[in-house]
């Protein structure tokens, strides 16, 4: 392999070998493509915030009424109790998850109850943010202990208009 070539007038000409450089670039490209791992986005919730003024008109008959989850707080902002409809669940997010899973069932896919179900979170004004996020996590899905995959339960979550202080 000759890198330098002496010309007639005593000047040196440097030749670059492009073939090994292109080989290295392609090897690096293949390495990065094969080791690239796509991560699912965290915190990707379908949440609808309440509007300033309620809309007029009748609701669509094809839509089911939202499942109401009421979260009450004590004077310091800690979670006091969770209510789903008229049923008290104490302050356990595991009970909330179990209740939602029992209501929705295992039917998934387009046209299923899980696809059209919607949860409305009705929280006290002074409730701390961490309890709201734990409720959203309990409602939206769970990790299957056998496979380690995330199982989505309900994707549509909205908030009720805030209660006064």
Measured between the Cα atoms of the first and last residue, the distance is: 82 Å
Shape: elongated
Number of discrete domains: 2
Radius of gyration: 29 Å
Biggest sheet: strands, sense, closure? 6 strands, mixed
Mean pLDDT: 77
Which structural class fits the helix and strand makeup?
A: alpha/beta
* Unreliable residue stretches: none
How many DSSP-defined strands?
10
Strand order, main sheet: write it out: 3-10-7-4-5-6
Sequence of secondary-structure elements? EEHEEEEHHEHEEE
The helicity comes to 25-40%
Discrete helix count = 4
| Estimated share of beta-strand residues | 15-25%
Write the layout of secondary structure elements.
Layout: E1 4-6, E2 12-14, H1 18-35, E3 46-48, E4 67-73, E5 79-84, E6 87-88, H2 93-104, H3 113-116, E7 118-123, H4 129-140, E8 141-143, E9 150-152, E10 156-159
Parallel strand pairs: 3-10, 4-7, 7-10
Antiparallel strand pairs: 1-2, 4-5, 5-6, 8-9
Helix pairs in contact: 2-4
